[in-house]
């Protein structure tokens, strides 16, 4: 199995390292718009640097796309043209319209495409989904989602990000669908610029909240922050008629209890997503290799990518229009 | 210091016990609409049962009102007429209009009135407020509030409760004001009947969510549930530019982590508000005795009671009208 | 053709008179809950009074229902049970739920049912519809609807009316559908109690406004008033890319121009709906007789009745919830 | 009295002609960014062309500003600096922020400023206001406003216009304030592109509707269109408990009745605002000359201009955010 890894930036480097451990490194063809970066990563993991993505795709049996967002759609189209299984980091494309077009194209093809929502491969998320599915939680009352990043991105990234909901909370929107196997029907969102005025320059915010209603009446709340001084805080709590459970709550959670009898955590807190979800990323790529070999259907399809994006679109619209937005208002 | 304790139900009995430990039990005059209940509680704690509230107020130097909500306003008016310091469990009155009238009456008098928001006397809440005030948290980004009750009230109580926000979340609305020393300016709320259809009979819900915006742009989310199978879960998390802290998070929190490395809690979880906040109730009454002796101003005034109620009103209106409600829309 | 006329009140008496002129008066069986009233009207027009609606229906080939709203559904069911063509004044039933049930029942039967939206038989409305249909107006830009009644109903009627939109503006909602052959997709409505505080007692208003959006983007505004000192003012203006036309504008319009060069109207202004739409009522009943004889399909079906009611429901919800309401939110 | 007329375009030319008839034409100094245009207009009316607005202001005792919108603020500041009474066509400035600044500056000066809402000088508007003020209408129930322009502006103008509400309906917003002496408190607006897709390019619309609520509960509806094939249709109807009256309704109204007994209008319909409001413009300028001579206070102050603009801002926000907007949300 020869793999084209397209993009050798922060997340591309992680994928290179993980793929090198999961498959034959020599068959890993790495391309990046910055050729030197491709060479450096390839040499680190024993893979092969190639001059451009076209050549990488040409020589490979499967693609893994970790390039900047604005290149995703083009690279997916190229992989589809070659008919090779494709993994792509979220989002599939830079706009809703382009995403809708891509999903149609993918659905009309026979090529499996997997979108990179790595939380689906984290054991605690998987256990929570199991408890929802097998009735271990009973009727779901409420879901509380938190996604707090350790530090804001560089300014250059902000205008390309699509805003906090499309860029960051989209992982929580996918998690909500994954955990409940249900769809969001309405969203109310609000946001604020609290610590980093640069976000206001781009009509974006550095903190945000949302309430979400699912098709069956289950309610969820979400918070998102671009800065958390203690680390990377991604948690989900599910409250049901039979049990109350938490994902991401433990010794490494960057949250300090003020209760008198709680000891301080020993050992390092979760500091970023690469550390927090490293095992999930590995499991995700391992699953993609199974998909690429024809051994499994895509565990996170292009339609899943679109569905999460539509929730993000609704949240963004709610934030800017100061009103409740129904998912029905968002094209698909 | 002779005290009239008006009401000997669940919360009245707790107050009787705590007051008996804080002051001379013989000077504690207990009245209840059910005379037998007053006698039983009085005999338990060594206090004096009296036939009715008028006599209790007549003989006392201060009042503690723990009667049903619909009697609050009348009992406060009687205490004011006697000019004696008065403690009253929330809410001050059964409607917003009556509360506004009472606040005007109280403001025009010299009699100190203290409203029973006991969380203000919990050490973790006090520490969190200290951290906000002294800058220990830096800029506040987000606040997350959870109030999940172990079991729903009896059906007879539901139509008198004013709904989940006025009855239950009002403690969180007061806590939000107490912690931040800031005012809520807008609310969006939603709710659902998930486990207990009886709430629908009274246009009430058994689970609810809200997002709140404070005057300075701080955002908060809140969840409320009438049932939690693991116990009484009241938590608040505050995220700021310098620290991330939690109230109510520890060994007794009724929440089960799904992370693989987290041990199960040893010892009992918090099961109800009397256990969770027993110390806070004692501290609250101790403070009221100081207030009654003229040694301190009211730590939670009638205006504070009104302010929290107005947030609850806005949340209730939002829930029923499916739209964002500005606090300016609520009379005061 | 023998006809059961059920109800001999204000509108029933008009129908009696018109039917007596359109068909054989002896075959007109009039029943009313007030037997004396039935006799009086029957003797006026040369018809036959019968003791109750069951007997009238039993002896007739078609029913005309002009009874109070709360009897409509029962009388329709009885006519359907007999299988005879049925005309019913709006509304079909007292609630949306019951209307939905009735529409299903009617659709499942072969019995023609005609709902009484008489404006569909007014020449100016018919000409306007023709101009929309044949392109005489071009692209429709805007529609302006006014429905101003000369005087408010008796207090006893108000709580049974369903509110100003279901009771009164429903004629304009039907007219909007009839004129454009298009459906309303969203409504924003507001209302006020200006002259008659009695409406507030029943959560109703005496003046109201609405904006409506049709499926193709056409916009409409509507005003409704329970009192107009000059008379009965029902007008509709349609603005298109080729023409700008008005219904209800002329010498009898109860509206006084302040322009210096406009003479005062000569002759009487329209004073009430019986005068304004008398010819339309006659044409409506004449058409029903054609329908009853099998000569034409119903010109205003039960589904049309439901569709107009759903717009009224949306307007009422908007009024009470202070927000835009999508028609999709209303059951059907 | 020497007057600087700044701007010699369409409206400037009208002002030149009217001013020449009202005062000594030789003392009328006309400047325009297009010097030839200034000369042509000056020679037409016997006035004096000057090379630039600075010189015109320097030589005059009063300014009349009829330049493009983006020059208004600068020209007002220059007139204020010279301390001469100033008339300015609406709007005062190109943005809300700049308008707020200007109003402060004007209020702090002693220089009278008059904003050009010419409808205040139309006899029918004045009579309607008189009837509101003296009780001739009784309690006001409803107000219906229509503003339909004969043809859309050139494309180049659209992006500078501020959108249909700021550019066009602002005259109706001012009229509403003038007629009722009351303030708008909330607005819901919607809009559509029906005939001229070019408006969509600039996030503008060619037809619009709004409902407005005044401080005392009076309700109003408004329609606005950029095209009316029959002419220029500006009408206002006021419905009260004592009378129902219309402005702009008569032989020249570009609206065709479909009622059978209404004759077609004889003579020309109103074709544009210059014809419809020519007399009002003359009366407006005559009044400004009185103001400039110190004989009267400004009949339409900068604060009036700001107040109408704030309603337009609220309507524009409502249109784009699909929700009700409170006037309180708009800065002032």
Provide the gyration radius of chain A in Å: 20 Å
What is the overall shape of chain A?
globular
Multimerization status: homotetramer
Cα end-to-end separation of chain A: 35 Å
Q: What is the helix fraction of residues of chain A, given as a range?
A: 40-55%
Strand tally of chain A, please?
A: 14
Strand order of the largest sheet of chain A: 12-11-7-10-9-8-14
Q: Helices and strands of chain A, in N-to-C order?
A: EHEHEHEHEHEHEHHEHEEEEEHHHE
Structural class of the helices, strands and pairings of chain A? alpha/beta
Largest interface comes to: A-B, 66 and 66 residues
Which stretches of chain A of 5+ consecutive residues score pLDDT under 50? Answer: none
Count of helical segments of chain A? 12
Q: β content of chain A, as a range?
A: 15-25%
- Overall mean pLDDT of chain A stands at 96
Sheet of most strands of chain A: 7 strands, mixed
How would you summarize the topology of this molecule?
The structure is a homotetramer of 332-residue chains.
Chain A: E1 3-6, H1 10-22, E2 28-31, H2 35-45, E3 48-49, H3 53-59, E4 62-65, H4 69-82, E5 86-89, H5 96-108, E6 113-116, H6 123-133, E7 140-148, H7 158-161, H8 164-180, E8 184-192, H9 198-201, E9 207-214, E10 219-225, E11 233-240, E12 244-247, E13 256-257, H10 273-276, H11 278-292, H12 302-321, E14 325-326
Parallel strand pairs in A: 1-2, 1-4, 2-3, 4-5, 5-6, 7-10
Antiparallel strand pairs in A: 7-11, 8-9, 8-14, 9-10, 11-12
Helix pairs in contact in A: 1-2, 1-11, 3-4, 4-5, 5-12, 6-8, 8-12
